[in-house]
Amino acid sequence: MLKKLFQSFRTPLRKPQQHIRSTPEVLNSSQHSLQRGQFSRYAVNIVERLQNAGYQAYLVGGCVRDLMLNITPKDFDVATSATPEQVRAEFRNARIIGRRFKLVHIHFGREIIEVATFRANHPQDDEEEDSNQSSRNESGRILRDNVYGTLEDDAQRRDFTINALYYDPVSERILDYANGVHDIRNRLIRLIGDPEQRYKEDPVRMLRAVRFAAKLDFGIEKHSATPIRPLAPMLRDIPSARLFEEVLKLFLSGYAEPTFEMLVDLELFDPLFPASAKALEYRPTYTHTLISQALANTDLRIKQNKPVTPAFLFAALLWPALPAKVLRLQERGMPPIPAMQEAANELIIEQCQRIAIPKRFTMPIREIWDMQERLPRRSGKRADLLLDNPRFRAGYDFLLLRESAGEETDGLGEWWTDYQDANDSERRTMISELGSKPEAGAPRKRRRSSGTKRKRAGGEPAASGE
């Protein structure tokens, strides 16, 4: 079914690093390629000011990792021994944010530098936990994380070795507590500490492992990959609003197609999109092709700096799950178009229980799907009215996506492509040539006895438009 399953894990070149060194490996400027001029001048200025005020401060995490890989960082983070309140006292343009994980945002015009205080490990004994600073639920998931500690503690609390690198722009040295430089050079995603415990602390780390592996073209080290499948259902306990933000990062970073392959391979797709995962099981070729093509198109648009909308993305991710619901409603006697609308409503409500898709996106999703029922109705003035519809372009693109996945539409996509390029006279001819063809193309085809029986027999409902 899959063209090429992403290499979800790689055999480690050495035994897994379970603990952080008490003394870091220090790489001097002659031992690495980083230069302070590559970093945001505002972030460097924050580090210098905090150090001059007597605090420890470093550039940390993704910006260090990405620059070592010759990737331009999207943001620059600072880690410091100063508490959020102490940081705010040093910078008038600083604001403390967050409750679960208290941070400081320092604003420089449109650029924001995030400053985090060194974190420490959580106490294992519940009686020792201060609920104002640290709390877990019964499964071990961290609910609040404001236990401050040393630089060594902070390195221990980082999720992956490649994110536990600290760069001092003053001395131009890198501090490496977890063999992160080694793993960058060997293109490995490796969790710090015991993988199962770290995933239980925050199941979203499983999604982060996939995101980094896809973005960087790294493999997930075997010991870090092994617990993912059995722990994947823990994602169902993550707040739906947080999962929405994580899914946007997964699919709108320019690496959505390999990300999807890894999510399916590691059984992480099901807890995120349960109805679509079921469609992937019943109609694997069609569902995989449609979603993969949509994600490949999204990746291409991002690389070309073209706008992308989460609405189109979610419309494609959920579309393969829609026909089963439509068919079930039609079997209860509901007419095709109302069945389509009701099924869409049900599917979106169910999906929002897992991923809190905002209304500003669920409305366009419905409109894109609704356009699939309207595009076959072209007689009279309907074609021109559809062209003027603000959702026409998205609906037309979605029609072409369905056709590319193998749906039969009697050449509807080609007809609309020609109609857009035609002059007024040619358009009138095209409309007249439709003649007595039925307009309600999609619902009519869903009612074809042979197609419906064929799909029912295999437990595989026909898609709208087939």
From TrEMBL:
EC number: 2.7.7.19
Catalytic activity line of the entry: RNA(n) + ATP = RNA(n)-3'-adenine ribonucleotide + diphosphate
EC category name: transferase
tRNA nucleotidyltransferase/poly(A) polymerase RNA and SrmB- binding domain boundaries: 217-278
Keyword set, alphabetical order: ATP-binding, mRNA processing, Nucleotide-binding, Nucleotidyltransferase, RNA-binding, Transcription, Transferase
UniProt superkingdom: Bacteria
Similarity remark: Belongs to the tRNA nucleotidyltransferase/poly(A) polymerase family.
Upper lineage: Bacteria, Pseudomonadati, Pseudomonadota, Gammaproteobacteria, Pseudomonadales
Keyword flag Membrane: no
Residues in Polymerase A arginine-rich C-terminal domain copies: 333-448
Functional summary from the UniProt entry: Adds poly(A) tail to the 3' end of many RNAs, which usually targets these RNAs for decay. Plays a significant role in the global control of gene expression, through influencing the rate of transcript degradation, and in the general RNA quality control.
Keyword Transferase annotated: yes
Stretches with biased composition (Basic residues): 443-456
Region (Disordered): 119-139, 427-466
Location of the active site: D75, D77, D159
Pfam families, sorted: PolyA_pol, PolyA_pol_arg_C, PolyA_pol_RNAbd
Chain ranges of the Poly A polymerase head domain: 57-190
Gene: pcnB
Official protein name in the record: Poly(A) polymerase I
Gene source species: Pseudomonas folii
Record-linked NCBIfam families: pcnB (TIGR01942)
GO MF annotation, one: nucleotidyltransferase activity
